[in-house]
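Good day; I would like, with your permission, to put a structural problem before you. What I wish to show you is a protein chain and, alongside it, a tokenised description of its three-dimensional fold. Please examine both parts with care and let me know of anything in them that strikes you as inconsistent. Thank you for your consideration; the sequence and its tokens are set out here:

***
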Amino acid sequence: MFPAGGDGDGAVRLRVVGGVGTVTIDRVDRHNAMSFGIMQGLRDAVAAVRSDDDARVLVLTGAGERAFCSGADLGGIGDEDDTADGARRLLADLFRDLWTLGKPTIARVRGFALAGGLGLALACDIVVAADDASFGAPEVGVGLWPYMITVPMLRSMPPKVALELAMTGRRVDAAEAQRLGFVSRVVPVADLDATVAGIADGLAGRSPLVLRLGRDAFYEVLDLDADAALTLLHARLGEHVRTEDAREGLAAYAEKRPPRWTGR
């Protein structure tokens, strides 16, 4: 467990079972809003997953039934002071931590994911939502703008969709979020845990090296032009085919047997 700064405002819990590290924002009374301490706890939990070879997949979720994460705690970090600036930097660093983790990440969304909570979900590789989930960037309604979450939004949906959501502040239900492309799967509430577990277990059974190399290459080329991306990917492919796991995967396919991954 990663206490939220020792200030009594909740905690971030990490549990590793069967190759899956589940990180839970546990602040139900505040709809899992992110205080300074919660953000630091999330960074600490992601760092713990990064360094734990037994944790091959990260699942990020919120405690309770009402909210994945309602965003930053405006009452705690909304003032123009060093603490507020530090919290904004923490959120940006948290997005970077997730993108550079080197392991697959899944957002398990029940209830609403708003503002920074939307950004947190979209910073994950896969978003699995219960059919009662809703998403939005409502900052404009309180005279703010979703500056920091613009990046995960633009990496997850068409630019004009992101702009419209930011300008209007409207909420999007899970079905529309899937149509817009930033939610991977929508399932009934009763099926949420089993669906997330199935995806996570499947990823945990893949070669961790292949997932790391491929995932890193994906994020490297995301903001490159096509020519630069092809040049980089050509080099990455040359490195990849020389790995033990690539040779093992091809041999296992030819021999019609399950592969035995070594992570090398």
User: Anything to note?
Assistant: The longest strand covers residues 11-17. Residues 2-204 form a domain with the 2-enoyl-CoA Hydratase; Chain A, domain 1 fold (CATH 3.90.226.10).
